[in-house]
Write a structure and sequence with these properties.
It is a single-pass type I membrane protein. By secondary structure, the chain is α+β, with helices and mostly antiparallel strands. The protein has six helices and 31 strands. It is globular and about 120 Å long.
Length: 469
């Protein structure tokens, strides 16, 4: 037999092929091993560290230590299996709608591509730019990196996004970094049996080693029957082994009791969950995990304070007269200004009341100023899309969340439509809808702030040549 390098990139020697053993990378046209219901898991890809695997060409699993079964944290779209990677940047699936995942640079010619399971647990499609000779990510499976199990090792750690492509691991209030023994975080002060207090961490969840998905109860979590917040808290307080409990405010009133330890913590507005961590009564650390609840001020309050009059003497009569005259002028000017303000903006106050915008729900959109969004988008320089109604810019908030800022054009007299759109989108939550994190209504500026989704424009899915055919 001869040692042969095929056009697909496979190195063959007799019946042996380098593509026969799973690595961390698949090339276009490479045969992909498939699993079935009657056999053990078939490893399609394995990360360099061995901690993450793509099994049966459909599920990403995390393997910790001596664990041989692994925990699923992500699946291919629509529950289908990966069949093929094309040279044009398409991932063919056995099922799903659509049955094809498309790279953001689909259709670009003479591009070398590779599908790699990176060591951070994310499955990414890379494209080699011919002129710059560098690899660029054109598709990735997991959008929120913090939902990947094992991202932050050790107990009591919380994974927080850092921009669009990074994460950082932090300790909750009342905890500090631990050195050695698996690292993680440890409590600063011990808590007496059934004692301590609970600190609320908004948008924080712990997967607790869930074997199938992060929404399933894991070995360190017990899901309770629906109850109110006080009942859920009391159940955890009565159990000395309960370090925290999770509660979802809403109609379902989900109550989760964590057991023994907290693992795989992550921050994400998509969880709509608040975790209450038990700490010592004397603990007073600053809590960075607070919701974005805020009140929209439609009318600015005016506070008037009268000066304390001095003791009346004959020689002070003139001073009192001068002060009184100045105060009267100031008061008259304030009243006239306030009246003009109310006359101009009373329509917005009534509109806000009608649409229910005076108080937004917990986790609702935040109102940004024009200056904040100008800074976040670097003076509106990074354009990612244009449409008939506005331009979309990429930006980064001070808390390092990547956002897409849609600057609306020609709103004109459509104020009611703008506030209605803010209200409706703020109350809609769905897996296939981009979340809105805020808005701007500063003078004549009208902008919507959405989460940034990096997998390219939707038109590549809606108007691809294959679908058009």
């Amino acid at each position: 037999p001869r040692l042969t390098l095929n056009d697909t990139g496979s190195l063959a020697f007799g019946s042996w092929s380098s593509f026969g053993d799973p690595t961390d990378t698949l090339m276009p046209g490479q045969d992909i091993p498939q699993g079935n219901n009657n056999s053990a898991d078939v490893t399609t890809l394995r990360s360099a560290s061995g901690r993450y695997r793509l099994v049966n060409s459909m599920a990403l699993k995390y393997f910790s230590g001596a664990d041989t079964s692994g925990s699923i944290y992500a699946n291919m779209s629509g529950g289908g299996t990966l069949l093929n990677l094309t040279t044009e940047g398409e991932l063919k699936l056995s099922a799903g709608n659509p049955p094809t995942l498309i790279a953001s640079d689909k259709g670009a010619r003479d591009r070398l591509r590779r599908l790699t399971l990176d060591d951070d647990g994310n499955l990414r499609l890379y494209s080699l730019l011919p002129t710059r000779r560098e690899w660029r990510v054109v598709w990735e499976l997991v959008q929120e990196l913090c939902t990947i199990q094992g991202t932050c090792r050790g107990n009591n750690t919380i994974c927080v996004p850092k921009g669009a492509d990074g994460v950082t691991c932090v300790c909750p209030p009342g905890f500090r970094n631990r050195t050695g023994a698996g690292d993680g975080c440890e409590a600063k002060k011990s808590v007496a049996r059934a004692g301590g207090k609970f600190v609320r961490l908004d948008f924080v969840s712990f997967s607790s080693g869930a074997p199938k998905s992060s929404s399933d109860p894991g070995p360190y979590m017990a899901k309770q029957p629906p109850s109110n917040l006080q009942v859920c808290e009391q159940k955890c307080r009565d159990d000395p082994s309960c370090p925290a409990f999770g509660y979802k405010f809403g109609g379902d009133r989900t109550c989760l009791l964590y057991k023994t330890r907290l693992v795989d913590g992550y921050w994400s507005p998509g969880t709509e969950m608040s975790t209450f961590v038990r700490v010592a009564e004397a603990e007073n650390d600053t809590n960075p995990f607070t919701g974005m609840t805020s009140m929209i001020d439609t009318v600015c309050p005016v506070q008037l304070a009268l000066p304390v009059p001095p003791k009346q003497k004959a020689k002070t009569i003139r001073n009192i007269a001068i002060i009184t005259a100045l105060f009267a002028v100031e008061l008259l000017a304030g009243v006239l200004s306030f009246w003009a303000f109310l006359r101009k903006y009373s329509q917005y106050r009534e509109m806000a009341r009608t649409l229910g915008l005076e108080y937004l729900p917990a986790g609702g959109p935040r109102r940004f100023s024009y200056a904040e969004l100008k800074t976040a988008t670097k003076d509106f320089t990074d354009v990612v899309g244009r449409g008939a109604y506005g331009t979309v810019f990429r930006g980064e908030l001070p808390d390092r969340r990547a956002v897409a800022v849609k600057q609306l054009h020609g709103v004109g007299g459509g104020e009611a439509e703008f506030w209605a759109e803010v209200t409706i989108i703020a109350r809609m939550h769905h897996l296939n809808l981009v979340r809105m994190w805020g808005f701007c209504a500063d003078k004549d500026q009208r902008m919507l702030v959405y989460e940034y989704v990096p997998n390219g424009s939707l038109d590549k899915y809606l108007f691809s040549r294959e679908l058009a055919g």
